[in-house]
């Protein structure tokens, strides 16, 4: 039996619609790509929309590295109401009037949540506790606590602040957030409301960027149904990582897993390319030599 012929390897930047899970998008991409070798870099909640990076064939091996990159979001936080899920899809657990909250107080609360902070993830996250997803434990009514984790919120900007129609005790705040991987925007909404003493939750979330991939290059599912194509793996790697071009001898040695000498690449992961432009590997400099993080030469 001859081996299956691999289709094009690359990324698809999807503008995910609301109401669909990330796994649901992957299922659609598997059908369009004609392969089960499809994955995504960083889950989006069903309520959320925006950039979801999909990897096809060999590019699935890029996803774990892309998931660690910086992300940007546009969101709306509602003050005056707390929910069990920290977003609009959960049961309301408390209401405290936000009518007296000032813009000065909002700005101070946002400033306290900017920079290197410790954040307790939302309990309905996919984090595992003793091997069981946190959201599963919530559904089963279990009482538990999640440990705080270090995250970086490099920008947390307040836009429009308004009172929703017919709800004078609530306050809606439009924000944009730039943050490290692992930051929960729902938790920022929760913590902002808690810090202001009125509670808060997320009513809208749109991811606008994952690393170098943003909405300008994203396509809707309808557009992909009409014309499906991937961003070739070479272009995807060059966009996401600093490029290191090697000669033919170096390319051969890298292909054999040899830790070849490197120039001063600097910290972080680099994409190594052969003289023919072929993407060979993700590497990191270690004591003057290239440590192969993931090989892509075959």
TrEMBL record:
InterPro entries: PsdUridine_synth_cat_dom_sf, PsdUridine_synth_N, PUA-like_sf, PUA_sf, tRNA_psdUridine_synth_fam2_C, tRNA_psdUridine_synth_TruB, TruB_C. It comes from Actinacidiphila reveromycinica. Belongs to the pseudouridine synthase TruB family. Type 1 subfamily. NCBIfam families: TruB. Its EC number is 5.4.99.25. The lineage of its organism: Bacteria, Bacillati, Actinomycetota, Actinomycetes, Kitasatosporales. The active site is at residue 45. This is tRNA pseudouridine synthase B. It catalyses: uridine(55) in tRNA = pseudouridine(55) in tRNA.
